[in-house]
Write the structure tokens for this entry.
Amino acid sequence: MTQSADITVSNVTLRYGSGEKTVLALDGISLDVKPNEFAVIVGPSGCGKSSLLYLIAGLEDRTGGAITVGGAPVDGPGPDRGMVFQSYTLFPWLTVAQNVAYGPRRRGLPEDERNRLVTHYLGEVGLAGFADHYPAQLSGGMKQRVAIARALANDPAVLLMDEPFGALDSQTRHSMQRLLLRVWDHSQKTVLFVTHDIEEAILLADRVFVMSGRPGQIRKVLPVPFARPRLGDIVLDPAFIAMKREIMGLLRSDEDGED
Amino acid sequence: MSEKPLSKSFVPYRPISLALTISLGAAVWALVIGGWMLLTYGGRVPEMFLPAPGKVLMTAGRLIADGSLLMHTAASAQVVLVGFVISSVVAVPLGLYMGTYKAVQAALDPLVNFIRYLPVTSFVPLFILWIGIGIEQRVSVIIFGTFFQQLVMIADAARSVPRDLVNAAYTLGTKRSTTVRHIVFPASLPAVLDILRVTVGWAWTYLVVAELVAAKSGLGYISLKAMRGFQVDIIFLAIAMIGILGLITDQGFRLLRRLVAPWAA
């Protein structure tokens, strides 16, 4: 299995457009994610948090600054950075099993090895019985579970997650969060997770990066002190609520600044 | 009779029963044929202009018996098939690249959109001069009529592949150079098959154009010959044959889509 890697983002800027209509989406943003860490970026919509993830994945070109993953500079997309997207991105023409086997297949792994990975990761996300289904036959939550299995089966050094549960109802969302933490615990991958949901951020993260918008910058980095596993009623804990309030305050002062 | 009042069948987008689907389709056919019978057997229209259904059926029997209907139908089908296959074999890959790579689109778009609006019929004299009046001429008309339309529609299908599907493929190790093969082609396959289904219908339209002008066989040719002899029943027959062949190709493509793209509803 690939050693999980660190992510360093230093002084990255992202500018859209040219001339007078230019938009500064990210302005000299810097952050570090340690190996095996579960890091969450929380920020208002349009703050550039998703753009930052796309830059780390190499799916977009940054205007300035440097990004390295496991010490290697990012220049274009690669299988060392797995990603789970907000929109459903399973390949509709492949079965669940074939979707999970897609990355290993591109790497040229033999069939029995691919089958072993499919069995293992579909078991991890609790979808062992759905191997031969097509994505169109799955619910939204199931699709995202397959997407997680597909990303992990390809053995990336880091896992990037762009609001993967954003389109799910709140009950499915909570069970997905528990599932993700369990899978992360088993896989020991570095995870960088983007969300606008403060509660989700605190539940999942080792450290929360609070981001402000337009242009996007890291406002504060908060280590989450709560022991794992964090059970459902932890959200009612005064310390949890205090942390939630602090992050809300940071995000709100950002809004006020805009007016 | 259905238990629900008929008004329930006129709710926007509400599905209707299979029985109602079939009976509505059959009713419209019955109306058309009934009207036809009324006009002809009722003696309202001279037979020279509109033959009675029985007359057309009898002519059909005669032409089937002497083998000429099959011969002309086969001749037409061959032209359509050859022209359509040549057109599709080039248009599908080229269209996919055109929809995926902006450079290919920039290069081809101005020319394709110019040619696309030229009426195919205006090229028939040119083709006859260049190619003569053999099967190659008719095949050329089919290719010219379908290729540019296919190209534009297939490029559109390729362009509408969700970006994040391609992005996901990149993060799973797909190389940019193989994106069309691994992602764009399978992702747009259902749409491509639909486009082929629609354009094969157009190919039949252009066939008649080609055969009316220069041919020694085919359904368009016997129609033209029948017109000179006031044999309206044969013209009806030729039109019906094209309709039937169109229906068969249409169903064939629907079946093909279900077979090769079972994941797409």
User: Anything to note?
Assistant: The longest strand of chain A covers residues 23-33. Chain A is about 35% helix and 25% strand.
